[in-house]
Design a protein that fits this description.
With 155 residues, the chain is mainly alpha-helical. It has one domain (2-154). It is 79% helix and 0% strand. It has six helices and no strands. It has helices at 7-34, 43-51, 57-88, 92-102, 108-119, 124-154. α2 crosses α6 (124-154), α3 runs antiparallel to α4 and α4 packs antiparallel against α6. The chain is elongated, with a radius of gyration of 20 Å.
Length: 155
Amino acid sequence: MASDISGSAYIAVIKEIFVSLKLGRGKRVTAKAAHLMFWDDGMLKELRSIAAGETDRSTIRQLREKFEISEGRVHGAIGELLRIRDKLGASNVARQIDAVVNSADFGKGGIREDIRTLLGTKSKSDAIEKADHLCRKIEILRTELARLNRMVNES
């Protein structure tokens, strides 16, 4: 089949295949990264309430439920993003994927561990402080996820 295609036509076909693969990977990155987002009506709602000192058993229970429900989905998305990162090599997109997953300052993995710690906190003042810190980290993560989305869609 390749022998039937010559010169610039062959290069055009290869380029089209490459672009198609790139776009497919980009859509997967965007879709999986959306699973890392903290949405206003998700756990972020309860975290903001706790940070504001509006904590009761219901708030903690709702946070715990949302945390547990999202565990498998988030774990799967992180795994897929890391596989894509490894295939991308030393690119800017790969570094951004690594940051949104692994950064000590705002990575999704660390934030989830911090939420797990918050859920075990007994002191209301400690919970308020931890939740406030988490909300700040989440805002950074949201910004970095938006950056990743732009990088994927502009490349």
